[in-house]
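Running low. Invent one:
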Amino acid sequence: MLNMIRYPVLAFLVSFFCLPAPARGQADTTTLLRRYHEGEQIVYRMSATNQGKGSVTHYQVRADGVVKRDTDGTMFEEFAWSDLRVNDVRVPLPAESRAFRERLSLSPAFRLAIPDLSRLHPGLIGPVVDLLTFYADIQIAMRQPLHQGGDHVYVNDGSANSWADGKRILTGEDAIDFDITLADVNANDSALTLVVRHVPPAHPAIALRAPWMSEPVAGTPNNWVQVARGDTGSYVASVGRETFEATIRVHLGSGRILSATLDNDVQVLERVCGDSLLTACGSPRRYTIRRRIEIE
């Protein structure tokens, strides 16, 4: 499940930073605006269900944040992670993971990036990247003309993004567009609701290594592919359709995230092949990888 968790954020961070930053003064009129106060404290509880091929995993974790100011004056939120539970069992975190700090921000001047995960406890990698996902979705929405309930934009991208490591994962690519709606602005609740859908492009620019991979798995062009080394020289080839839908509630006054959900589905067709060209393959197997993440 690790690659399934990490690569989508790589995809839209690449897309997101190709977009222009808001023009000077635009933040004065946009509905999406984070108003930071140095020293402000933020606490999120995250829970998730990951349904993979033949297994289901649940986790809960806590993120404690504080607002700080960078040397250039940019405000950011610095989070520490604790109280990790996997399938209702508390997971002790080593010292390096307890000392890890994740920097995120909804300031347009802050460049989001995936932190160094190499020394992080594996159980924290998903939560760290999932929280980054929510912040990146809001940042890309900030760059769009969204001012009142019902406003909608579609951001074309479609370029391929890879998570292949050249060793176990020989090919790993996805491609997405962004369908963004400011669903509701409710002054009575002092909250707005943002819906960001990551959807298959009309022409995903992913590398499909065999003709059988081009047949749509779930009614739209396939936008996800992975080829991994299997046992005894075999190759596990998978292709399918990946979608995300993030629903995020934001406080109108402060711009802080109040709560959010993320639903991530991948409809997969998988075949075990005896050659690297993926022509001598066994019968196809279909399954769904499904993830749901909630924070509040």
Observations:
- The chain has three helices and 14 strands.
- The radius of gyration is 20 Å.
- Residues 202 and 221 are 7 Å apart (CA to CA).
